[in-house]
UniProtKB/TrEMBL annotation:
One of its GO terms (cellular component) is cytosol. Signal peptide: none annotated. This is Carotenoid oxygenase. GO terms for biological process: DNA repair. It comes from the Bacteria. One of its GO terms (molecular function) is phosphoglycolate phosphatase activity. SUPFAM superfamilies: HAD-like. InterPro entries: HAD-like_hydrolase_sf, HAD-like_sf, HAD_2, HAD_sf, PGP-like_dom2.
Length: 219
């Protein structure tokens, strides 16, 4: 069912714009001794997508007190790989179509804002107006609410697009709608359990939901 066309769309970064899941697994497998985790094989990687990210700690057997170091290390290592990170196919064209329809775009991420800005620059996505950092453990709800206040927008004028259970929960707490994408860190089956407003399997489906289906995806 189409969603009312918003004035502002907030995007997640990892797993929504950038394909970083396989990079995260690779970093863990190269640094697992330093991180105090276990290596992640293919089957465990599939299993990770079936549980909320906060439950990953049990699967990779990382003690709670090591979580901050684990998060910092993964983020720092991802920053070193910024030039090789890939944007998901068709997401760039979807972003261009949204901007052409005069809808503001921003990113809310638990990554470093400067790192994400550099990725956007490298991928020709300067149309995205801003990037805001949210603490991984605190979640994104507070940042989303502050963003609404900053731009004097009501919750029904904003949509969040993300790929995890956490994105859905944070959006609901902030009172805004969430479109969940299935190409990121959590599987479609898991996302459905947390009842986002809509779930999409392809980037172009986002345009249909926002009543922007008349825009064409550039190949």
């Amino acid at each position: 069912m189409p969603i009312k066309t918003p004035k502002l769309i907030l995007l997640d970064f990892d797993g929504t714009l950038a394909d970083t899941f396989k990079e995260m697994v690779d970093i863990n497998n190269k640094l697992y001794k330093e991180l105090g985790t276990d290596p992640i094989d293919y089957y465990e990687a599939v299993k990770l997508r079936e549980v909320p990210m906060r439950n990953w700690l049990k699967i990779i057997e990382i003690p709670l007190w090591k979580v901050p170091k684990f998060i910092r290390t993964i983020i720092n290592e991802l920053e070193k790989r910024i030039s090789s990170l890939e944007i998901f196919p068709d997401m760039k064209s979807v972003i261009q179509a949204i901007v052409e329809n005069k809808i503001m775009l921003g990113v809310v991420t638990t990554n470093s804002a400067e790192y994400v800005k550099e990725f956007l620059k490298l991928n020709g996505l300067s149309q995205i107006s801003f990037v805001k950092h949210a603490d991984f453990l605190a979640g994104k709800t507070g940042v989303i609410k502050k963003t609404l206040n900053e731009f004097k927008l009501s919750p029904d004028e904003v949509v969040y697009i993300g790929d995890t259970v956490g994105d859905i929960k944070d959006s609901k707490r902030a009172g805004i709608k969430c479109i969940a994408v299935t190409w990121g860190y959590n599987s479609e089956g898991l996302l459905k359990k947390y009842e986002p407003e809509e779930i999409v399997n392809k980037p172009e489906e986002i345009l249909n939901l926002l009543n922007l289906s008349q825009m064409t995806i550039a190949k």
